[in-house]
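As noted in the main text, all predictions were made from sequence alone. Below is one such record, for Type II secretion system protein.
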Amino acid sequence: MDQQTNSKKAFTLIETLLYISLTSIILVSISAFMGLLININNRNKAISEVNHQSIEVLENITASIQNAEGINSPAQSSSGNSLSLQIDSASSNPTVVGLSGTRVIIQEGASSPVFITSDDVIVNDLTFYNVSTNLENKGVRFSFTIEYNNTSGRSEFNLTKTFYGTATIK
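Prediction:
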């Protein structure tokens, strides 16, 4: 008579605990890595939005100054928180650049103000300085601080930058 041995392979308690531990470590590592990627993505979103909105402000203010005939305010060698430009076209005269709350606006003539920035950013300290030296050399230096509108309170969205620009009337 043959003796058959019923040999069943099974995991021991130590092997089971080892596999559960390794699986847990791998899952925790993957979760931490995914969390890091989400934080980096959120930070990049804030940086991208602040940079994009800043470029819009810089380009619009520079173009308005370059297309102007003169500077109504601020007066020569003075500064102010809004800029009034004399424009050749009657429908666009004057063109005023300033803040409405925390958003940059441009108003041409009697038309409604146009928002240059969105609610995604907060603009503070918009300042214009008339650097004109005489009737032929008219220019404006301007600066503004822009920050991402962090409604979530998450630290990766905290971003504030200050930008400077100078433009002359052509």
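Residues 13-66 form the longest helix (54 residues). The chain has one domain: 13-168. These features were considered when defining construct boundaries for the mutagenesis experiments described in Section 2.9.
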